[in-house]
Amino acid sequence: MTTSHHDVLIIGAGLSGIGAAWRLQEAFPAKTYAILESRDAIGGTWDLFRYPGVRSDSDMFTLSYPFRPWVDTQSLASGEKIRQYIQDTADEGGITAHIRFGAKVVAADWSTPDSRWTVRLADGTTMTCDFLYACAGYYSYEGGYQPDFPGAADFRGRLVHPQSWPADLDHRGKRVVVIGSGATAVTLVPAMAPDAAHVTMLQRSPSYLTALPPRDVVAAALRRALPPKAASAAARTKNVLLTQTFYQLARRRPERIRRFLRRMAVRGIGDAEYVDKHFRPSYDPWDQRLCVIPGGDLWAEIRSGRASVVTDHIDRFVPEGIRLAGGDVLEADIVVSATGLRLVPIGGVRVSVDGEPVRIGEKAAYRGLMLSGVPNLAYCIGYVNASWTLRADLSHRYVVRLLRHMDRHRLAVATPGTPDGTGRPLLDLSSGYVQRALDIFPRQGDKAPWIVRQNYLRDVFTTPRADVTRDMTFEEARS
Questions:
Q1: Residue 335's beta-bridge partner residues?
Q2: Other Cβ atoms closer than 10 A to 431
Q3: Pick from 26, 316, 303: which is nearest to 149 by CA?
Q4: Relative orientation angle of helices 228-252 and 254-269, to the nearest 10 degrees
Q5: Does the global pTM surpass 0.90?
Q6: Half-sphere exposure of 452 (CA within 13 A, CB side)
Q7: How far is it, in rounded angstroms, from Cα 15 to Cα 71?
Q8: 319 exposure class (CB count in 10 Å sphere: 0-12, 13-18, 19+)
Q9: Whole-angstrom Cα distance, residue 301 to residue 190?
Q10: From CA 291, how far away is CA 268, in angstroms rounded?
C-alpha cells in the first residue's frame, strides 16, 4: 500500500542527508520531499558510533556545512558535538519535520511507464517519488567487519566491535587489546588508556599517522578579526589548501612525505627504533587513508607506558587472551576488534528498473553520483582524501542543478548513458575494507564525466559549471 508521493525522497538523516535537504528546499521551496531514516535519531554515523573517544578525523571547518559555519573552538570534534551540530542544522532549517524515523528502505524499483520510483520500507509500506537521492553513505549499519578469529569462543573476557559498543562495558582497571591500526584503533587507544590497566594496539602491519592540533589557532585568530561567516570561509579555504597540497605531494613525492611522517612520530614517541618497528608502513602515504591523532595523543600514551603497540599476526584466541603467531600471549580482559567496516552501495538498498535488478558493480559511476542506465537516481559519497562534506555538498548542488534543468525544460526523466569502457574502482584505496567490496561498487570510466577525481580544488571549480546534459538522456514530462 502506497502511503504518499513526494517530488524527492532522501535516504538517510546523517551529515549528507541533512545537507541535501537544506540545498533542496533552498533551491525549490515548492517541491515536496521527505527524508527516510532507518534509525530513531538524526546523525547517521555520529549517532551510531558510541565507542570511547569517537571523533572526526577531518577538521570541522571542512567537515561542517558551508552554509552553516562551525563555531566551536575544537577543530577535531567529538562525535557528540558533531551529532548535535547536525541536529541543530536540521532544526534551524525546518528539516526535522520532514524526517520519517524508523523508515528503513530495503528496495527501490523504477517504473518506466509511470516515470517514478516505488520505495519499499522494512515494515512493508511503500512510498513513491520522482527522484531518489541516497545519502546513507557506503557502509553497512547492520554491523562492522568481524573476522572469524580461531578460538574466539574460548576467550574468557569480552570481545566487542566498535560499531556495536556495549553501553555497560567498563574498561577501568582492565587489560585491553585493540585489534587494528586504522582511524578507529588510534582513537580508542588514547581514549581508554588513562583508565585501563594497560591498552595494547595489536596490528598486522603499521599505518601512517599524522598529528594535528585539536584547536585551530589560525581559525581562532580569524574569528577575532572577521565576521563569523567570513572567518569560517577563510579557515575552510586554508585547511582545504593545506590538506590538498599535502595529498598531492604525498602522491608525487612519497619518499619525502615518508620521511616527514617518520620524523613526526619519532618526536612524538621519542624512540626511533620503536617507530621503525611499529609506525613504518610498507606502502606509500595515502595508498590508504592517513590517520589523524589530535595533539599526538596516541604517541603521548605510548610514551607514558599506559599504551603499547605489538606488530604481529594472530594465531588464535585462548582463554586468557590472544596467542600471536610468534608464540607470545597477550593477556586481556577486553578485546576490541577494530577491524573495519562492511561496505554496501546505495545504503544497501536493492535497486531495480521495471522489476529487473540493477547489478551496481556492473555499472559505471556518472560524475561519481549517478549510475549508468539508471534513471532519476543519485547517491552521495565523499572524498577519501579530504572531508566527506566537501564532495557531498558539491553532489547536492549538482543534483539541484540537474533538477532545475529538468523543471525548466519540462523533463521528467534523466538517465546517464554508458561509457565506452571502465577502469579504476570508484573507491581507489588499498585498504582492506575497500578491497573486500570492489565488486559491488560501480567503476569509473576512462574520461569525463565518468572519472571520479579525488581533487576538491579542481572539482570546486568544475562541478558547479559541469554540463548536466552531457552523456545524459532526457524524456519529457507527460502532459
A1: 159, 177
A2: 17
A3: 316
A4: 110
A5: yes
A6: 30
A7: 17
A8: exposed
A9: 6
A10: 15
Q: In the numeric block, which cell numbers belong to residue 31?
A: 517541491
CB-CB contact of 421 with 428 (8 Å): no
What is the grid cell recorded at 93?
532549517
Sole residue written with cell 613525492: 253
Could you tell me the domains of the chain?
2-142+342-476 (3.50.50.60), 152-337 (3.50.50.60)
What gap in Å lies between CA 443 and CA 324, rounded to an integer? 38
Q: Residue 419 corresponds to which amino acid? A: P
pLDDT at residue 290 is higher than 90: no
User: Tell me: the pLDDT tens digits for 24-65?
Assistant: 999 999 999 999 999 999 999 999 999 999 999 888 999 999
